[in-house]
Amino acid sequence: MELKDQVTLITGSARGIGRAIAESFAKEGATVIISDINAEMAAKTCEELKAQGFKADSFACNVTDLKSVEEMTDKILDKYNRIDILVNNAGITRDNLLLRMNESDWDAVLDINLKGVFICTKTIVKPMMKARKGKIINIASIIGIVGNAGQANYSASKAGIIGFTKSIAKEFASRGITSNAVAPGYIQSDMTDKLNEKAKEEIFKTIPLGKLGSPQDVAGVCLFLASSKADYITGQVIVVDGGMAI
Question: What is the mean predicted confidence (pLDDT) over 136-164?
Answer without folding.
Answer: 97
